[in-house]
Design a protein that fits this description.
It contains eleven helices and two strands; from the N terminus they run H-H-H-H-H-H-H-H-E-E-H-H-H. The protein is mainly alpha-helical and 265 residues long. It has one domain: MetI-like fold, CATH 1.10.3720. The protein has a two-stranded antiparallel ribbon. The longest helix has 38 residues.
Length: 265
């Protein structure tokens, strides 16, 4: 066990040292004037902005989190339902599945301005963009996961008199879970990107502390006003939010797929 812990620690040491080295070079390049601070703020300037404007970041992160959470809820429910319907209806699968694949090539950033026209500024355009961009991997992975069930188990249960619901609960759902959860992990990452797209287009309000329209809106306004340290701070918060949400799904995956891990070991 100690050997495994040491190996795990060593796997983090080199990347950590490399990252610290990059920060040091970055800081020195700005401090010595090699890179202008109005083009690329030093890490210390970004850190100072993160501390001095922490409440502004918290408020905007909360706005982004609301859009991501609502969008994910819509994408998860719609994606699971669509995947199941396509699996159980061969006719709908032939009609809709190709359109689903084609829809993945739609530039979602181009849809955001239309949603603002249709639904106005505020939360819902961001939620819709988030749901649209997170919907695809969940729907496709649910469909493919249900199709990956062991046909021998399915035939055995049918021979024993099991109905469609029993086969779904006993065989198809457990077999599909690894792919479904992989789709959810992709959906979480895409959802944060979708919320960012929606916020870059619009949806804001003002408070005594400043701009509140989500991290994407804060980054855009900060960049437009030359406050790049705030823009980089928003990027750090956005990355942290994505990592936390992704990590939450990973923890859920390990809990739900304990049997799958045990079989592999």
């Amino acid at each position: 066990m100690r050997t495994g812990m040491r190996a795990s620690a060593r796997s983090w040491v080199l990347p950590g040292l490399f990252f610290l080295g990059l920060l040091l070079v970055w800081e020195l390049a700005v401090r010595t004037g090699t890179v202008a601070d109005y083009l690329l703020p030093a890490p210390s300037m970004i850190g100072s902005a993160l501390v001095s404007h922490r409440w502004l970041f918290v408020q905007n992160a909360w706005e982004t989190l609301k859009a991501v959470a609502l969008g994910l809820a819509v994408a998860l429910s719609a994606g699971l339902a669509t995947g199941m319907v396509l699996f159980y209806s061969p006719l709908l699968e032939r009609m809709i599945y190709p359109l689903l694949i084609i829809s993945r090539n739609i530039p979602y950033y181009a849809i955001a301005p239309l949603l603002v026209v249709w639904f106005g500024f505020g939360l819902w355009p961001k939620v819709i963009v988030t749901a649209l961009i997170a919907f695809f991997p969940i729907a496709v992975n649910t469909h493919d996961g249900l199709k990956s069930a062991d046909p021998d188990f399915v035939r055995l249960l049918r021979a024993l008199g099991a109905n469609r619901v029993q086969i779904f609960v006993k065989v198809r759902l457990p077999g599909a879970l690894p792919l479904v959860l992989s789709g959810v992990k992709l959906g979480v990452v895409f959802a944060v990107v979708g919320a960012l797209f929606g916020e870059l287009v619009g949806g804001q309000r003002w408070t005594p502390e400043g701009i509140v329209g989500g991290l994407g809106y804060l980054m855009r306004e900060a960049a437009n006003r030359g406050a790049l340290e705030l823009a980089f701070g928003g990027l750090i918060w956005l990355s942290a939010l994505s990592l936390v949400l992704f990590g939450g799904v990973v923890v859920l995956e390990r809990y739900l797929l304990r049997w799958h891990v045990q079989e592999r070991t």
